[in-house]
Amino acid sequence: MIVERLVVGPYQTNCYIMGNEETSSAWIIDPGADGQLIIDRITQRNLTPVAILLTHTHWDHITAIGTLIERWPDLELLVAEEEAPALSYEHIKQVCFDKSFLQMYDKELQKLPRQTGFLSDGQYLQDSHLLVIHTPGHTKGGVCLYHEEGQFMFTGDTLFAGSIGRTDLEGGSYTEIIASCKRLLDLPGEVQILPGHGPTSTIKNEYNNPFL
Length: 212
Prior knowledge:
It is built from six helices and 14 strands. The protein has helices at about 35-45, 65-70, 90-95, 100-105, 105-110, 175-185, and strands at about 1-10, 15-20, 25-30, 50-55, 75-80, 115-120, 125, 130-135, 145, 150-155, 160, 165, 190-195, 200. A hairpin with a 2-residue loop joins strand 11 and strand 12 (about 165).
């Protein structure tokens, strides 16, 4: 399994490309910006993307979606049902406090499509072998995506290396994010954490996370 990190946009968001070398299929996790960069890397690897998977719907994790679906119209777009209402240009304009971001990415955000399906807690995505873990706290419908065989997990903005996601935005809850992170710490210590921003970590390293 190929896992490549691309750091995109002004928020330095980690977008991940997960590819299966045997089937040449790929999954795109949190395409926050720089859609053409993501397209180029997938094309260079001779992969065919199957779906976009969202850990949550904050603007810095979704901006390139429209560009990617223009390139690959059959791409699935999967997100937790609680997050789906935020996948709209009008909603983003209401909640995004970063007006320079809105101005910079206005055209891209106007291309946001609706989801094609939902992610729910405990759901196993057969094609990608990812297990969906509902981890509210940063947002109401935030999820982490755990690949048990590969022993890695996409944690979005729930759990970072030595930190946790902010809880002061719409749908945030400090109590919930602490509970979500502690749930993740029940996974094997060797599981690699692939967060939405910043460096990677492991579950074992986060036993000493000062927030937990």
